[in-house]
Design goal:
With 170 residues, this protein is mainly alpha-helical. The chain is built from 10 helices and 2 strands; from the N terminus they run ααααααββαααα. It has 3 domains: 62 residues, Arc Repressor Mutant, subunit A (Orthogonal Bundle); 56 residues, no CATH class; 31 residues, no CATH class.
């Protein structure tokens, strides 16, 4: 064990919430690798650690909501105000302060008096939103049902759907 500091349930819980791996948490907190799996499991089974993890997860929900909100603004937000400022002859300080520049990652003056504006990557924001939303990553009940039907030898559901579309078109 780490001789410099005692591994408290609160400390273990804080590190575990970040890593979501009891063995890795134990190693990071100074437990020898040979004992990490056993010690991590022991710590994680302690009621005080369970309570601390639950409390930290609950507190983290609000932070996650802020992150998702910000990513949504990056992914779906408008850039009209930023574009208006770029094309304005002489934007006033009031126009600049009222402009929604949330999606702007960089503004700089270029030689010759122009302005260069870069925006955050919408695709990356969408990918991060997808990573953070477990409902988007999980297979739906309908797709599981369709997979089961297709793999059970009861016919090709794709062919059935195509036949149905052809009937509707006629």
């Amino acid at each position: 064990m780490n001789k410099d500091k005692t591994i408290t349930p609160k400390l273990f819980a804080r590190m575990f919430v970040r890593l979501r791996n009891a063995s890795e948490t134990a190693v990071r907190l100074g437990i020898p690798v040979s004992k990490a799996k056993q010690e991590g499991a022991r710590m994680l089974s302690m009621p005080s650690v369970k309570r601390a993890v639950k409390r930290l997860d609950k507190a983290d929900e609000q932070t996650l909501a802020y992150v998702k909100t910000g990513l949504s603004r990056l992914a779906f937000g408008q850039v009209n105000d930023a574009v208006s400022l770029v094309f304005a002859e002489q934007p006033t300080p009031e126009q600049i302060s009222r402009a929604d520049l949330f999606n702007v990652s960089e503004i700089k003056r270029v030689k010759g008096g122009g302005v260069e504006m870069k925006f955050f990557d919408r695709q990356k924001a969408l990918e991060k939103l997808f990573e953070l939303d477990p409902e988007l990553r999980e297979e739906t009940k309908a797709s599981r049902f369709l997979s089961a039907v297709c793999s059970s030898g009861q016919g090709d559901i794709t062919q059935l759907l195509e036949d149905k579309e052809e009937e509707s078109a006629e």
